[in-house]
Every structure is written in structure tokens, then in C-alpha cells.
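Standup notes, protein team

Yesterday: finished cleaning the Paragemmobacter straminiformis set.
Today: Sugar ABC transporter permease structure.
Blockers: none.

Input for Sugar ABC transporter permease:
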Amino acid sequence: MDKTLNNKAWFLVLPVLVVVAFSAIIPLMTVVNYSVNDTFGDNQFFWNGLAWFEEMVSSDRLHAALGRQVLFSAIILAIEVPLGIYIALNMPKKGVWASLCLVLMSLPLLIPFNVVGTIWQIFGRVDIGLLGHTLAAFGIDYNYTNDPIDAWVTIIIMDVWHWTSLISLLCYAGLQSIPQAYYQAARVDQASRWSVFRYIELPKMQGVLLIAVLLRFMDSFMIYTEPFVLTGGGPGNSTTFLSIDLVKMAIGQFDLGPAAAFSIMYFLVILLVSWVFYTVMTNLDKAEGR
């Protein structure tokens, strides 16, 4: 029996398409227009071709910011993914303690980005911050406003504190979907803890883990508010990531043409890397027969 198609349902999606057009497509076309034109004010534009893109591609400033961004995302994923899985594996599965753990793990995710940056800005200060004052009391020379390494360590710890719970909660949801019969069969076969994780838990988590890693990569690659509030991109340019550099170029220097080309390249890099990462992970999943 053929299924009846009702194309009138598209009218229900029409308001969403209109909102997306005004909030995404039209601003994107404006950015594209700025990226291929130059202006001297009074809303007068002059065709500039791909000159802004060529300038950005050969820019040492862009290369430095991109290197810092890639390094930051790599460190974040290397820490948060294993840590999130470990926490999820050790969280209670039932009872009051399970509910309490879920609430506590959700709390960092509810805090706005600018508040997170402010919390760690105060927390790390040597004069009034608990972390900075404690480290100074132990004789450790710590100052994230002057030392680039201290600034990087503080930003990384801040991001791990803020976002590891997202990976933990997603992995915990994947673990909860595993039938108890799998664990019972593993106990009968006297499987080791590693074997249970390798052949039962990890395959069942792989779908949500892929989503978690993709979300964390995209978010860490676009991070702006927390490091900007904490360090402002300093000391020097040591924590000036791509997003911070883009804002400085567009708003601080008002170089709209280069900033527009920068933002389009930024968007394409995120899109390309996310697609490559997703393709590799899904192909690896198929190759292993899961």
C-alpha cells in the first residue's frame, strides 16, 4: 500500500525557514559581500576580488592564532574525553546517589560563559583568589596575567571543569541503555573489566561519544567568552585564539574586509574538520563491524 504524502506539512516549517533566513543566511551573505569588496565609508563599496582572502592566507597573525587554536582543541579533547568516560563509568547507576551525581554534574553546564570566565578570573588572582593565594602560600610562582604558561593552564582547567560533565552525561546515557544481560554474560565468561569496557560498554557508547567529541571540538575551536573574560587574549597574544583575533580585527580595528574573509575561512575550517572527523569515525565504526 502506497503511503500518502501530505505536502501541506511544509507550511508548518515555513516560519522556521523564515527565521533561519533572517538570522543566518542574510547575515552570511552580508559577510560574503564585505569579504570581496572594500569600502571607504558612506556605504560605498568597491570590488576587491579575493585580495582579502589572499592577505589572510599569507598572514602570520592568522597562522599564529590558528596554531594556538588547534593546540588548545587537541589538549581539551585529550583531557576531557578520557576523563568524561572515566567519570561516567564510575557514576552510580541507580538510587539517590545516581540522581545526586546527575544534578552535580549538570551544574557547571548551567553557568553562563561570561560568569565562568569571571569566576576563574577571581579564583586565580593572587591577591584575593583562593587558587592564586593558596599557590602563593606554598611558594609557587603563579600569575596568569603575566605568565603565558599559567594563563594556558588556567584556561585549560577552566574548560575541563566547565565541559567535562557534558561528555560524562552523554556517555552515562549510553551506558544506561546497555541491557543487564550483557553484563551477566560477561560474568559467566569471567571477562575482565577491560574486556567488558572494550567489547560491551565502548561500542554502546560510540554513538553518543561521537556526538560528544564533535560538540566539544566545535565548541573548543570557537571558544571566545571564557578566555576573553579571563585573560583578554593575553599576556601578549599567548591566548589570542581565532575568535578573539577575529573580534579584535572586526571591532577593535574595524577592518571589515579582512575580518569578513577571516570569518568565512574560520567557518570553512570548522565545517571541513568536523566533516573529516565524522567521516573517519563512522568509517572506522563500519570497518570494525559495529
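Follow-up from PR in the comments: The chain has a mean pLDDT of 87.
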